[in-house]
Amino acid sequence: MTRESAPIVAELGRPETAEETAGRKAAASAAYRSSQTFRSLIAALIVTVGLVAIIVFIVPRGEPATPASVDVAAAAANVESSLDRAAIVPDLGDEWRANGAVLEGGSPSVWTVTLAPAAEDERGFVRLAQAFDAEASWAATQLKGASPTGTVNIDGRDWDEYSISHPDQTGNISYAIGIQAGADYILLAGSRSATSTAQFAATLTAQIDRIANAEEAR
């Protein structure tokens, strides 16, 4: 087809030149490729979402994993063997679970057991700390300088009672009680109520008595 017989382009009012024809075709090709790329992205996104949905529905989720249990008795036996001293082993029963049990070195050495309520709908914690060859002054350092506000009698023994004004400064500890047992100082500190803490302390009475009596017999 000669230039004279080429169709007149309305926008130009004349026939296209060869360069204009080539440019128009190149622009059309680019627009087509762009639309195909966009369609491919949409298709890939749809496929990805579909695969995720399938995985969510077919993969069994089950129940959350149960935290590994802490063998407090075995850890206490190691403490007794290494220090040749009696270590308190709390009776967890059905009310408590142990989150940790460790002997912290230093002066003094401290046998620490961290407990939480066994019931899923209960919150808070109690930390049992047995400081070997320590007195009440040690507890004050653990509680950021808090002093006893009085005593509470539990099973015939008077425990020092600490009320914490700023739990955010004591690792969320809002209440604590402590007692001297022979050469050791026993501290129960945490975020449980005074009643709950006293009930737990009552389960330790026999062991505290044995520690105190053993020290007196030396």
TrEMBL record:
The keyword Membrane applies. It comes from the Bacteria. It comes from Microbacterium pseudoresistens. InterPro entries: DUF4245. The chain crosses the membrane at residues 41-59. Keywords: Membrane, Transmembrane, Transmembrane helix. This is DUF4245 domain-containing protein. Pfam families: DUF4245.
